[in-house]
Amino acid sequence: MTLPTLSRANVAALAFIVAMTAGLLAAPLFLKTYGVYLLSLWALNTVAAIGLNLTLGYAGQISLGQAAFLGIGAYAVAILMKAGVSFWLGLPAGVLLAFAVGLALGFPALRVQHHYLAFATLGFNALVFLVIRNEEWLTGGNFGIRVARPELLGHSLRSGIDYYHVCLAVLAVTALLVWLLLRSPWGRAFACLRDNPIRAESLGIDVRSYTLLAFAIGAACAGVAGAFLAPLVNFIDPSPFGLVPSIYLLLMVIIGGPGRFFGPFLGAAIVTLLPEWLRVADVWYLVIFGIFVVALMAFCPGGLLAVPEKVAAMRAARRSARGSAAGQAGARP
Amino acid sequence: MRKTATACVALAAVLTAAPAVAQDVKFVGIFEMSGPGTTAGTNFKNGADLAIKEINAMGGILGRKIAITSSDTASNPTTAKALAQKAVDEQPYILLGPVFSGSVLSSMIVAQEAGLPQWIGGEAANITQQGNPFVFRTSFSQAQSMPKIANYIAGDLKAKSIAVAWVNNDFGKGGRDQIAKEMGSRNVKVVADLSTEPGQVDFSAVVTRAKQSNPDVLFVYLNEEESARLLRELKKQGWDMKKNPVVGETTLIGQKVIELAGDAANGAQAHVGLTIDAPNPLLTAFAAKYEAAYKAKSDHNGIKGYTGVYVIKAVTEKLGKFDRKAFAEAMKTAQVSAKDNPGVLMSVCFNKDGDLDRDSYLAVVKDGKQVIEKTLPPVGICKVP
Q: What secondary structure, in 3-state letters, does chain B show?
């Protein structure tokens, strides 16, 4: 039996995953409840961003409605828990609902593309926000709903650290499932759809089904994140599910590097944690954050994970320039 | 050479500051310093900071100075919750803020679990209806202010019909529900129910619909900036405030609104819980100090932050110790008179829910100034000293 050979890149990725997991598991030892809460928030934002990365980065369908799916997951759980249903039954209900609505939202994507699609999804987000806010009998409207932390096998998850571990597990499972999906023929079909839809169709890929699926799976990821977000905050009202949070989720994907597996991890870390770290800058913290984002987009539109490649490409270009210059010099008689 | 000098200065600073730090009593503030709540949050913070500076200059509370660290919630309930968590980690004596009710609702659970007394600026009625023994108001709840307004509209103005323009957020919806209830019980008909968006710019449709419904009184319950825009639109469309009075709450004729609306604010009337224009020398003196410190006039949120800190001082000194649990217990029956504690500006009492009671005013804008028409007595939920 031969062991599968690992390329250098794969070894590096594996080592990175092991180090990251160890770091995240050990983090609560060094953090107070505030830090643990922020990391939990990061984990859930990453789950939602992984979903959007699938829709946007891999399948090329721009969506400005991801926060709406977060809201669908969160409110499904909150409303069911208020009615006395267990969180663990509310969770699949919320995720299925997000999946179904995502599927429905995929239909406009069959007709329109790019910024037209962005506006269609933006409109959808506004619609969901209005329903959440105005249907007070169901959602509590502006007054929101208080949500208790669930129990797991008889063990209460009230402690911040316990719940953080649950959020990490949710992130790990989602990431693994998406990783497997991307390595399946489906994942390759998504990429094909993004790069050249006409060619994809001519190769026999069912563009219609895959577009709908890209939306639905991306939405389901946000549904998962939302379902766990409600008990994390212990309270939900419409504000985290409006247009601005959707743009922040898009920013997470773009900053990290769309179409890159670890992009959402990095993007969510920057969007969730950086403003908190910058608080030492007092009233300037949001200004500094804004400048950082503008600079990043101006100098590295492919996201942070594209930086090493960009540097490598620049070096290679310099080397080849030097090489050709030397070659020309040598060729001279 | 310069490095050595800097090091010496730093060392001296540390040595002199160290004993003071050891004795300081810690406050943490979480305020809306960016986002839609900026005006409210910043005023609240400024008021609290001013009070803390004065108290520290007078020797602090029970001989200990107050050290406050403040951070910005960006008017976002999720961030407010995170910051409340951070505050709990720091083990302060008091948590000040936030001001927006949604942020209060998300953060108060954290403070309650940690047994941390929280002084809030939110006015939504449901905040103090959830049995949280650690949350205290710095202003009236809508449940207390709306009956006062309803009495004025139905009694003094003898209105039979009313149009309600409200902002569709937790603050506006809560107020709208309360006023509709109070009007119903006084047989005043709500002929138009006009919902508006937070941050709305164009109020022409709202005013047109209000005019079509032809109410005896237009009741306005919006945040400051939106109130100013509505007043301007009313003037543009020729609304006659003498024939159909425009009545609201503190936010309709706040300092900021008068600045933004200019002439259009003249004639607007409101029930005002806290105002620097009240016929009260303590409030006048506060207004001058605030303006000197921040080069701007304080609105009601500035007074909330300022008086809140002085109430904390009075109750703690009566208690004689820094004990969060005992403090929360003492607050349930607290009565603080302005005679003995001028910093509270107006005598005030608290009930077991954390709601407060005191005098309030009925004011009208004349020539770009708030003029107090009459003083309204306390509602009677506790005994004002």
A: CHHHHHHHHHHHHHHHHHHHHHHCEEEEEEECCCCCCHHHHHHHHHHHHHHHHHHHHCCCECCECEEEEEEECCCCHHHHHHHHHHHHHCCCCEEECCCCHHHHHHHHHHHHHHCCCEEECCCCHHHHHCCCCCEEECCCCHHHHHHHHHHHHHHHCCCCEEEEEEECCHHHHHHHHHHHHHHHHCCCEEEEEEEECCCCCCCHHHHHHHHHHCCCEEEEECCHHHHHHHHHHHHHCCCCCCCCCEEECHHHCCHHHHHHHHHHHCCCEEEECCCCCCCCHHHHHHHHHHHHHHCCCCCHHHHHHHHHHHHHHHHHHHHCCCCHHHHHHHHCCCEECCCCCHHHCCCEEECCCCCEECCEEEEEEECCEEEEEEEECCCCCCCCC
